[in-house]
Write a structure and sequence with these properties.
Blueprint lengths: L1 H22 L4 H17 L3 H27 L12
């Protein structure tokens, strides 16, 4: 099980790293639209009765990942100018 989790995480990281260069340098609105389109493609292939639950799951996961990604991008202090928050 642990090896499967590690393999999954490695695969996720590889896919994310492959996508990043395609988003880099584009305005945030365009990046957001690309991510929204990918999510819509993902959800369209899912049974309609499962979509809301899937959206909620993904939003919750995104919220959990934000602090992790923030530390990776900006270090332990987090987003610049927010050191006194949280």
């Amino acid at each position: 099980m642990a090896n499967e989790t590690t393999d999954d995480m490695n695969e996720i990281e590889a896919i994310v790293e492959a996508i990043k260069p395609h988003l880099a340098g584009h305005p945030v609105e365009l990046q957001g639209a690309v991510i929204a389109d990918l999510m819509a493609i993902f959800l369209a292939g899912m049974a309609p009765e499962l979509r809301e639950e899937a959206i909620e799951f993904h939003v919750d996961l995104v919220r959990q990942l934000i602090p992790v990604e923030e530390r990776i991008a900006f270090g332990p202090a987090g987003y610049p100018g927010t050191e006194s928050e949280g």
